[in-house]
Amino acid sequence: MLQWLKTYRKEFLAGDVGAGVIVAMMMIPQGMAYALVAGLPPVAGLYASIVPPLLYALFGSSSTQSVGPMAIISLMTASALAPLAPAGSALYVTLAGQLALLAGVVLLACGLLRIGFLANFFSRPVMNGFTLGSSLLIALGQAGTLLGGAPLHPHLPSAALGVGAVAFLLLARRWLAPLLRRAGVKPAAADIGARLAPMLLVLGSIALVALLHLDARGVQTIGRVPAGLPHLNLAQSAQHWQALLKPALLIGFVSFLVAMSGAQALALKRAEKLHTNRELVALGAANVGSALSGGFPVTGSLSRSAVNFAAGANTQLAGIVTALLLSCALVLPTGWLALLPLPVLAATIIVAVLGMLEWNTLRTSWRYDRADALALLATAGGVLLLGVEAGVVLGLMLSLGAMIWRESRPHIALLGRIHGTEHFRNVERYAVETDIRVLMLRVDAGLFFGNAEAVNERIEDELAAHPAARHLVLVFSAVNAIDTSALFGLIELNQTLGQRGVELHLAEVKGPVMDRLRDSVLPERLSGRIFLSTANAWDALVLHDR
Amino acid sequence: MLQWLKTYRKEFLAGDVGAGVIVAMMMIPQGMAYALVAGLPPVAGLYASIVPPLLYALFGSSSTQSVGPMAIISLMTASALAPLAPAGSALYVTLAGQLALLAGVVLLACGLLRIGFLANFFSRPVMNGFTLGSSLLIALGQAGTLLGGAPLHPHLPSAALGVGAVAFLLLARRWLAPLLRRAGVKPAAADIGARLAPMLLVLGSIALVALLHLDARGVQTIGRVPAGLPHLNLAQSAQHWQALLKPALLIGFVSFLVAMSGAQALALKRAEKLHTNRELVALGAANVGSALSGGFPVTGSLSRSAVNFAAGANTQLAGIVTALLLSCALVLPTGWLALLPLPVLAATIIVAVLGMLEWNTLRTSWRYDRADALALLATAGGVLLLGVEAGVVLGLMLSLGAMIWRESRPHIALLGRIHGTEHFRNVERYAVETDIRVLMLRVDAGLFFGNAEAVNERIEDELAAHPAARHLVLVFSAVNAIDTSALFGLIELNQTLGQRGVELHLAEVKGPVMDRLRDSVLPERLSGRIFLSTANAWDALVLHDR
């Protein structure tokens, strides 16, 4: 907590303040836009951008993470709340806060229980497919707002404004940085300047609405933004807590995945160390803080964090600067924001989420591992066709299914002796000598419930292929652990082999594994012996027996 | 399919017919009792005992598996149907058939997709905890029927009959086999004879009710059993299919686990090979058959299969004999069954499920691996407090959590050279020489999304501990596979290490892994080299560089 403050140096200040200002400029349009995606009044997006970064600065371990509203989490919020209340209603706003509170408590609990390893649930292709599907779903969801009506019946002034905004943002992304560079701005500064195009667009479109009275011509604007800081907004409605629990678990899980994958990419570049469990606590605190200050579920945003990083943020102070600037924006008169046209906000959303599309993972995995590519496409399709929650569950199942499939096929080698040596190798790869009465199998994986069955099956196959075998030696040189399920498997294997006249021996059992086995009945019940080395087993069972 | 028929020998016949008759004698009370647990009319239990074993004999690979009603699956059926229809109603009966049909289709699909490895989802302690919780829940659920009323307000004649039946069954289990042995019966036959106590009790209690007119004194009996074989009983009610889908998935999963764990224990004793995917198909067909013949979800029952095994069943013919006998019982006049008192059926249920309790797993895992013991208790508690469906999900989460935790901590060794040799070993275990500019790490696990993060973290730690390092050699001698997530991890690691002036090298990449890597951009982007052996890497980076 505040570790960065103890080692703070004066030289950090310029970078932190500069980055804080730039991220605040990105945060204003993004926060309002993502509130819109979540079905909330735009001002909720500003609220959710103040307390969360402050709390993250207090607890988080990434120096550049920018915590606040984020597109996919907003989509999940909308999908969780849609069945419970009409979008934008007072109940809806309260439920959004409750959802953030629950998600925050889930994240805090995971952090305090130190189960951050759960982030390893999602494979990269599945995560990419999830992002892909969600981005398209968000973009499709904004089409109506962009055009001011159904695609075939657009409201022309709104559609002109919206499509114009999309064109401006796309052109700015492509050409603004090169233009600034040609105008003599330093490359890094030019890149960051180009990131402020959405804020420029917001200001420009407000001016345009004011000048042309577009609001009177039917262009929807965000309307009055209540000035002042948010007040506590978490009324009791006990009957909804239960309905929110499952979405809160999924949102907590996804927000952790999103935040970690972004922060880790940046941390690697600076050789900075992230603490998984501290990140969970920090994200949990940020969500609880968002709930208590009129916000909704938040997480780290890769696009803002990357700008924060590029703009020279040295410590979490940059996030504090961002939060202070946003609260200033709310305390100052906010009347000017009322004229911001919704089609322009929709345009910033669409361009932002289409910018998250990344096809390299699909291309690479299609060439490298077709199954991973299909998992990616299935997850994306699941999100698009079944919705974002079903998409998370589908992604989880595909990732875990892949893990279990992998685990259920451990590598097992039948061993033989390299003539005249004490070396034992796979019979399929080396010219080795074997004995028809002695089977030696090396299992190259820890034994546990996920592969116990596969090990048994391989043993049965080898015994069937070598009917003269009277000794089975399991070489445990690569077995780092044996869980309770596998322990029972060994005890039963020993018993059934005994009934069939085959002795079971172990060899090269590692120290820690042997210590554990001594607490069990296996050593005393074992029909055979426990050899220190494979060579000892060979000497005793093959040579002395000749 | 019918493989056993091709190799059938005359000598098998006596054992098969004898076992078939004995299992049928067990099946009659068990089938009716488990139908009661499922909330169905007792005759449904007899229907569910005819077609399923026939279909299992057609497709299954275990010679001794007895397929039919089973306590836990009946409990899950009751729990799935309770919110949808009043127990025993015509709709309830139809829904039970639909549930069996869906579960059967799920099992068939898993078998045809060859994803039987999914059975490796549950760890043994979790399975034991699930059985424990379910057994207690079933026993508690039967207490009212046993006593003919609430525990504090029992119906005295019913309670006397029920408690008397429990006492008889417990005494029979403890003393009948020894008594028969003392009377000169062979030990094996005596053990099997003792298993027929429930059937004896059924017949005795019917006689008692008839003699004492207990039904007129308020003892509930099963009532008229419609004679004749069942007719198709699967009316359309499309609106319920969706509600049944999730329970059907869970029931399919649990019935597969239950059937496999029982069959495998018996198969090992005979060195018989079970085919996981064929078992899935056979169980799926059995459930579809049960649905089409007035039954409900079924699975293999360990208690009956063990008797079938002990009574000398040689092939699946024993199951066919059982099915034929049960259909005869239905064709013959069934009026006598009407007087069977419910408290006696409840007694057979309670004694049967309490017989499934097994404390050895808890005792062993408590000593061997406390975490596994706690998972067992948590699953049992989950079933008791949250219900059987929540229990399955909790068990899944605990098993998978354990797997992911295990996977997220791969063994990684920092290597050094044993002086004067070409052998490289863990610096923590051997006296080896190292070079401060060259870090060599051996990863003892396949690289995939579940451990990619842990590998990165270890690399960061080692680089922080060895700031002079300019080369990182990853020794892949134990890496059997690299998935897409880990491939991306390596590409990014290579890039970020490059920015920090550290070259990344690989050594001892296995043939199949190298073949896959060649399809990726890693080899061309790698800042360092790919060495055939660790010794080559040492020579090039340490010796030639001196």
Indicate the topology.
The structure is a homodimer of 546-residue chains.
Chain A lengths: L2 H4 L5 H26 L4 H6 L3 H9 L7 E2 L2 H11 L8 H23 L11 H24 L8 H27 L4 H8 L2 H16 L25 H32 L6 H17 L6 E2 L1 H9 L6 H15 L10 H15 L3 H9 L1 H17 L1 H20 L4 E6 L6 E3 L11 E6 L5 H17 L5 E5 L8 H16 L3 E5 L3 H7 L4 H4 L4 E2 L2 H10 L3
Parallel strand pairs in A: 5-6, 6-7, 7-8
Antiparallel strand pairs in A: 1-2, 3-4, 3-5
Helix pairs in contact in A: 2-5, 2-13, 2-14, 2-15, 4-12, 4-14, 5-11, 6-11, 6-12, 7-15, 7-17, 7-18, 8-9, 8-10, 8-15, 11-12, 11-13, 16-17, 17-18, 19-20
Structural write-up:
The structure is a homodimer of 546-residue chains. In chain A, the strands form 2 sheets. In chain A, strands 4-3-5-6-7-8 form a 6-stranded mixed sheet. In chain A, strands 1-2 form a two-stranded antiparallel ribbon. Chain A has helices spanning 3-6, 12-37, 42-47, 51-59, 71-81, 90-112, 124-147, 156-182, 187-194, 197-212, 238-269, 276-292, 302-310, 317-331, 342-356, 360-368, 370-386, 388-407, 449-465, 484-499, 511-517, 522-525, 534-543; strands spanning 67-68, 299-300, 412-417, 424-426, 438-443, 471-475, 503-507, 530-531. The model of chain A has no long low-confidence stretch (mean pLDDT 88). In chain A, helix 20 links the parallel strand 6 (471-475) and strand 7 (503-507). Chain A contains 23 helices and 8 strands. In chain A, helix 7 (124-147) packs antiparallel against helix 15 and helix 19 packs parallel to helix 20 (484-499). At the A-B interface, helix 11, helix 16, helix 18, helix 19 and helix 20 of A face helix 11, helix 16, helix 18, helix 19 and helix 20 of B.
